[in-house]
Amino acid sequence: MRIAIVQQPPVLLNREATLKLAVAAVEEASNHGADLVAFPEAFVPGYPIWIWRLRPGSDMALAETLHDRLLKNAVSLDGDDLAPLFDAARQHGVTVVCGISERDTDFSRATLYNSVVVIGPDGALINRHRKLMPTNPERMIWGFGDAAGLKVLDTPVGRIGTLVCWENYMPLARYALFAQGIEILISPTYDAGKKWLGTLEHIAREGGCWVVGCGLALRAADLPEDLPGRAELYPDPEEWINSGDSVVITPDGLIEVGPMHAEQGILYGEIDTSRVGLARRSLDVAGHYARPDVFQLKVNANRQSPVTFDHRQGEDDAAVDPLIGTP
């Protein structure tokens, strides 16, 4: 199985333009034999990079202007916002994993989530996972996710699951995926560098699975000219805001391909899922190396909501996820 990691910058805060880039990347990756195409964290419409420089209270007017643009360009999954990407997956017969800023349309219609979607080769949405815990200043942007999408999926490329950026530091979240027999852990991220790569290497060894780090390579010169605060926050056009460091790591914890550092493009790697079973021969943390008589993990996989509506008998249960039809 061949995987393609798209380490190209989005058109920040422009959903339509970013999706055009994503569709072109899927086509290019497919032409190079990719079976799975993965994008970074919050790729559509771009990671809110300003939160790491614009501290709360420092310039509320600028913060509100940027958030307003993010809100207007966020992705609604109950509409056709991602239709171009669905069509590209179906046209090229590839599985697509993509980070998005998702706008909730079920309740307040104003909360954003740091989500990752998995799209099957038939162009259908097969999972939506919302980041469980936004990291540090991310909490000014995104709400808390739940475990409704903390799933391992059977796909043509293997059993895949996703954790977003620092969710990978959460041992219980990892274990929930290990216990579901994950073969390929895909980690869209904004993090980079040696510490992050060391973490992914450890996770591969711990879980006996392939780990795919999907990083963002972004320079100040890549930012739109009309981005509010661009000149003040990113005055040096040659600055690497993020170096990317996309990588593919074997179930033995060895780097197979990458890291792609301070470079924009598509990183390709070959994955053989048959190596997973052999890697777990001596260490299977959710199998023969577990001690369920001593340790047990309970995961609440129900979709969380701030309100419950009681329906008359025969009406649909409000707890059913309308996107993928599962409680």
Q: What is the general shape?
A: globular
CATH class term: Alpha Beta
- Counting DSSP E segments of at least 2 residues, the number of strands comes to 13
Tell me the β content.
15-25%
Order of helices and strands: EHEHHEEEEEHEHEEHEEEH
Query: What CATH architecture do you see?
Result: 4-Layer Sandwich
CA-atom Rg in angstroms: 19 Å
Give start-end ranges of low-pLDDT stretches: none
The name of the CATH superfamily reads Carbon-nitrogen hydrolase
For the record, the count of structural domains works out to 1
What's the CATH topology label? Nitrilase/N-carbamoyl-D-aminoacid amidohydrolase
> Would you tell me the overall average pLDDT?
94
Largest sheet: 7 strands, mixed
The number of distinct helices, counting runs of at least 4 residues, comes to 7
The share of residues in helices is 10-25%
3D architecture notes:
This protein has 327 residues and is of the alpha/beta class. It has one domain (2-279): Carbon-nitrogen hydrolase (Nitrilase/N-carbamoyl-D-aminoacid amidohydrolase). The protein has helices at residues 15-31, 60-73, 83-92, 171-178, 194-207, 230-233, 275-279; strands spanning 2-7, 36-38, 95-103, 112-119, 125-130, 153-155, 158-162, 184-188, 210-214, 217-219, 240-249, 255-261, 265-270. The strands form 2 sheets. Strands 6, 7, 8, 9, 10, 11 and 12 form a 7-stranded mixed sheet that branches. The chain has a 6-stranded mixed sheet with strand order 5-4-3-2-1-13. The longest helix has 17 residues, at 15-31. The chain starts with a strand and ends in a 48-residue tail after the last helix. 45% of the residues are buried. The model has no long low-confidence stretch (mean pLDDT 94).
